[in-house]
Design goal:
By secondary structure, this protein is mainly beta. The chain has three domains: 41 residues, no CATH class; 141 residues, Sandwich (Jelly Rolls), CATH 2.60.120; 151 residues, Jelly Rolls. It has five helices and 30 strands. The strands form five sheets. It has a seven-stranded antiparallel β-sheet with strand order 5-26-23-28-21-20-19, with no helix packed on it. It has a seven-stranded antiparallel β-sheet with strand order 6-7-8-15-10-13-18, with no helix packed on it. It starts with a strand and ends in a 6-residue tail after the last strand. The N terminus is likely disordered.
């Protein structure tokens, strides 16, 4: 509803303020003796969260951790996303997640990871840009920056509200005698170590330390995804997969490294048995997703944004720039399924399609037939 005010020389245009998830905007039209202000509210998409704009919940001398779970992003179901940055000599303390598997992608830098699991099995390995690692629920693990600059990691979890316990916090719950008995030592040894039930989360080493030689070997929990031959590649882009058929250790989680060129588009599709949680590494894109009842949500994504598509909701992705865009797309299944328009629509006769769209069957004769979905298609039309 317009608001009229007696300000004959006032005219404010283009003001925009973001409050919470809503954009409140107004414009005005000036007349000779008054100005009419027109207000409108532009809702942010419920499928999108601007991770890069989030103030990290953990900030220490060793680095930062920003996490997006269902509390902040209500549409999440069965998945969540964290962004970890470690400064030089920064350490994500040894910790574990009781309710979620973890799948991580290294955006930049180098680090050392140690995983301690069932049967006292130890796995220590290095990771660098383009590498991934997987940690099963409940396995103790740590991450330490071994490079000279910042180390950045994107972490996906198989629960919308992942929990974690830190080694520092759990040790802080135990008395000195209990800790002493654990290692056969006098209790006064531990009285010198300050402890608290609250986790440190991110610490900082006093010195760089050494990387063990065996950390450079291959490891079942590490996967150099960007060095893997693409599952699909054409002029429109490529998809490199980190899923159970190429990385057997995975359970209930997987990832596609998706690239779309200015000549390509991710065709309209859906995933019958998996939700989709994406993170924009590079570029700017547009997505459209449909919800039950016919509601449509079209939104723009930029670097640092994340999005969530519920299981089997139809959607598409198109590049809005003249350079390549890159997405990390996580799924809550070890091998995600996919149904696309390019092959599925042609599974039905022209007569059925005519009845479906209330038009002549002959209008569908021009549709080509494909034995399987194309996944990434060439863009023969300009982006609207």
């Amino acid at each position: 509803m317009p608001i009229t005010t007696q300000k004959p020389h006032t005219c404010v245009l283009g003001f925009k303020a973001q409050i919470g998830y809503n954009n409140f905007m107004y414009s005005s039209v000036k007349y000779s003796d008054y100005t009419i202000y027109f207000w409108r509210i532009e809702m942010e998409s419920p499928h999108v969260f601007h991770l890069n704009s989030l103030e990290p919940q953990a900030i220490t001398k060793g680095g930062t951790r920003a996490f997006v779970d269902k509390t902040l992003f209500p549409i999440l179901n069965g998945m969540a996303l964290y962004r970890l940055i470690l400064k030089e000599n920064g350490v994500r303390e040894p910790h574990w997640h009781p309710n979620a598997n973890e799948l991580s992608y290294c955006v930049k830098g180098t680090a050392l990871v140690t995983i301690f699991g069932n049967g006292s099995k130890r796995n220590t390995f290095t990771i660098s840009e383009g590498d991934m690692f997987y940690v099963p629920s409940g396995f103790l693990h740590h991450i330490e920056n071994t490079g000279k600059g910042e180390f950045e990691l994107i972490l996906a979890f198989s629960h919308e509200n992942p929990e974690d316990f830190g080694l520092s916090g759990f040790a802080g719950c135990m008395t000195d005698p209990v800790l002493g008995n654990t290692w056969g030592l006098k209790s006064n040894v531990f009285s010198k170590i300050k402890r608290s039930p609250k986790d440190i989360i991110i610490g900082k080493k006093k010195s760089a330390g050494k990387i063990p030689e065996h950390a450079h070997f291959t490891n079942d929990y590490k996967f150099s995804v960007e060095e893997t031959f693409p599952h699909l590649a054409n002029e429109g882009g490529s998809a490199i997969v980190a899923r159970k058929d190429v990385w057997p250790v995975l359970d209930n989680i997987s990832m596609y490294s998706l690239r779309i060129t200015d000549k390509g588009m991710r065709e309209p599709h859906w995933h019958p048995e998996t939700a989709e949680l994406g993170y924009v590494l590079k570029g700017r894109a547009r997505m459209t997703v449909q919800s039950p009842g016919g509601s449509v949500d079209t939104y723009t994504l930029k670097k640092g944004d994340m999005y969530f598509i519920p299981r089997a909701y139809p959607h598409h992705i198109e590049n809005l720039e003249k350079k390549e865009m890159r997405f990390l797309i996580f799924f809550d299944q070890p091998i995600p399924g996919d149904i696309g328009f390019s092959a599925s629509v042609r599974a039905y006769s022209n007569e059925v399609l005519g009845a479906t769209f209330n038009t002549e069957a002959s209008n569908f004769k021009m549709l080509p037939e494909y034995d399987e979905d194309l996944l990434i298609v060439s863009r023969v039309n300009k982006t609207e």
